[in-house]
Amino acid sequence: MGSGLVDSLSGHRVRLVLAFFAIYVLWGSTYLAIRVAVETVPPLFAAGVRFAVAGTVLYVSARIRGAVGPSRPQWRNLTILGALMFLLTYSGLFWAEKSVASGIASVLVASVPLWTALLEMFVFKREPPCWTTLGAVVLGLGGVATLALDPGGGRINLLACLVVAASQIAWSLGTALTTTMTLPRSHLVTSGGQMMAGGAMLHAYVNPVVALLIGHELGGEPIGARTIVGGVLVLASTIALLCRREAAVSTADSWISGGEEAS
Q1: 3 state DSSP class of 186
Q2: CA dist list (Å): 157 to 35, 149, 188
Q3: In this predicted structure, what is the pLDDT of residue 90?
């Protein structure tokens, strides 16, 4: 066996070990990092910062390396997926980790295949119901119910566990919808766009609500009908502005792409 082939196989093994290290150690430790973060930082703010920054880095790096930006319909699809897979999924997870141990939260997150199987069988009708699959689903639901019981004193963290489970249903729905949507060819552009959209929505839609609740709980500020109506109007205007911004970004990407082709 030539030395070149040996070096190639050795390099492959090293990359494989590093990849599994990233999956099992780095990715697995994020749940503990979330638990530590939400002890001092508002959960939804922490999630918004995380994905806004990560999404921007991915998107910009991909565009600098020549990846084609999303079209206007693709931005719409990325925004929908960002709402499902980052706004709903991680707002629920970050909030729940204020009262659920990070290990339990990570196991509940592993229920994604369970919800995906149910959606594929009973909502999208892509797979016929199978007794083996249904048995596995029932087993998984039993595990979710078991984890909802706190061994320390028999206390039930049912609400937080249900929030985590529901957030994973949102992720599973986004995963299922991905196969039906037109998305950018670059996976980095797709991932970055989803994260940016989800992070922007976490900041824009949730932070005003959090501020109202903090003022009510800590400052004794009243929340009446007038405050609720005003808040809804402000959030509605924010949604409209974000939609307009997405259209502007799409137009700018088209202009940049056109300039690159002309040059």
Answers
A1: coil
A2: 16, 6, 37
A3: 94
